[in-house]
Amino acid sequence: MIGALFVFAGATKAYDPAAFASEIQRYQLLPWLFGALLAAYLPWLEITSGLFLILGRFERGALLLVSVLLLTFTIALGSAIARGLGIDCGCFGKTFQSTGTVVPLVRNLLLLVGVGVLWAGPKARKLSARSKRETE
Questions:
Q1: Would you say 44 and 29 are in contact if contact means Cβ atoms under 8 Å apart?
Q2: Per-residue CA distances from 10 to 32, 71, 83, 123 (Å)
Q3: Fewer CB atoms inside 10 A, N or C side of the chain?
Q4: Torsion over CA of 78, 84, 88 and 92, rounded to 10 degrees?
Q5: What ranges do the domains of the chain cover?
Q6: What is the pLDDT of residues 8-47, one digit of tens each?
């Protein structure tokens, strides 16, 4: 489920990287050039990590990427709220408009809980045990 969400979110932003770069600029956190580079790169990172979660390949790495992305997005949203910026989150490109920042912040927090469950779940423990055996 989280993998599919990241594939969808990445695909909607990859479709129009210029619009996504504009969304990034509304957060007023990065210089334009860095935001534009991020707009070209980030959607593909989301798509790739989501696909790896769906396919069950490189799961720990994909889960780590998704965790870092969610934490980063959550901090950016919290920063926008704290500074009183009235912006759309840009989380799904132009697919969903007028979601603001509070609803996406709550959604990200719930997704972080879901990612935590994946980290702590039985499959994750099995992967961890297997990787420990392989390194011994």
A1: no
A2: 20, 16, 26, 25
A3: C
A4: -10
A5: 2-135
A6: 999 999 999 999 999 899 999 999 999 999 999 999 999 9
